Amino acid sequence: MANLETVTRLFTDKSALGTTDINAREEDLALEPGEILVSIDRFGLSSNNITYAALGDWLKYWKFFPTGQEGWGHMPVWGFADVVASTVDGVAPGERFYGYFPIASHFRLRPDRVSARGFYDGMPHRQELVSAYNFYMRCSADVGYSPDMEDYQMLFRPLFITSFMLADFLTDNSYFGAKRLLISSASSKTAYGTAYCLEGQDDVEVVALTSARNADFVESLGCYDKVVSYDALEALDKSVPTTYVDFSGDNDLRLRVHKYFGGGLVYDCFAGTAAHAETFDPGEVPGPEPLFFFAPVQIKKRNKDWTPQGVTEKYGAAEQAFYKRVSEGDSPWMELAKYKGMEGAQDVITTLFNTGGDPRHGMVVRL
């Protein structure tokens, strides 16, 4: 029996990432055996989502939620959804899950490996994709979940796991022999999350590289040992062994860093991109080859080193402490900026694409 409802989705123009289109159509939402239907309630948006889109073809982010429309993609977001219908034992209507969703009013999943913690989406087209993005956490079983912290969780959890694992990767490798970590786009949430995780490391200096307009904000965070604007890069002592941790994706800046530091540059870690490029190509640079950091690889290593339970415990403690620092006190690191509906999501995406957004704001959308 047909179950016709209007499903609304927000599509992104793959050739112009700041351009979106609201697509609404009537669909049959009757479920096949083994499927559930969720209503997406809220999600976070940051420059990280622009990164997903910019690297959508290279890292297969566009393949998670195919649109069926040539040239248009579903920008992935992290957020919360409620089960509205289920044919699956162990997943009940009314349950709330955190995970990786398209920007849409409704979403169909095929739960696999259902456990007390949650499930993996078993849709055939997702099986070749990174499994970490296919897991949906049951809020009632998430020890780090708190209803009043949902906005912070969906903004920071997908970023902070990268921050935590990147900081661990760098320390695990003794910073590749560096005595200085130079972090570009230092005002970005993933960058300062990484600096936060590196606090207390007295064997390396953590230096923020940022724009002049964001320098005061970055200084106010207090998690960097030094803040340097892009135009003052050459004032740094180039004889200090340096690892470049690149969140900017700016090829011109990368070349400048390589040329200036010369033999003092011991490692180039590409950790993400705020650049509006469809693919990442570091170009020809002297010195160490830029190498992409992919958090799931370090997670896999630590699952073996620490056990999955150990990883969960270490990460959970760090995450909760970070949320507290971000949200509490007389000078919280971030203020929430709340938007409503698909139109609100469009406004945020346009702003993020054109300007990168205000680093002081965490942008959340409730559908």
Number of strands: 18
Rg to the nearest angstrom? Answer: 21 Å
| Overall mean pLDDT | 91
Helix content: 25-40%
Low-confidence stretches: 274-279
Written overview of the protein:
This protein is α/β, with parallel strands linked by helices and 367 residues long. It is built from 8 helices and 18 strands. The chain has helices spanning 47-54, 150-172, 189-198, 215-221, 251-261, 295-306, 308-327, 341-355; strands at 4-13, 20-28, 36-45, 72-73, 76-86, 96-102, 106-109, 111-112, 118-121, 135-138, 180-183, 205-210, 226-229, 242-246, 265-270, 291-292, 335-340, 361-366. Strands 3, 5, 6, 7, 8, 9, 10, 17 and 18 form a 9-stranded mixed sheet that branches. Strand 17, helix 8 (341-355) and strand 18 form a beta-alpha-beta unit.
Write the layout of secondary structure elements.
Elements: E1 4-13, E2 20-28, E3 36-45, H1 47-54, E4 72-73, E5 76-86, E6 96-102, E7 106-109, E8 111-112, E9 118-121, E10 135-138, H2 150-172, E11 180-183, H3 189-198, E12 205-210, H4 215-221, E13 226-229, E14 242-246, H5 251-261, E15 265-270, E16 291-292, H6 295-306, H7 308-327, E17 335-340, H8 341-355, E18 361-366
Parallel strand pairs: 11-12, 11-14, 12-13, 14-15, 15-16, 17-18
Antiparallel strand pairs: 1-2, 1-4, 3-5, 3-7, 3-18, 5-6, 6-10, 8-9, 9-10
Helix pairs in contact: 2-3, 2-7, 6-7
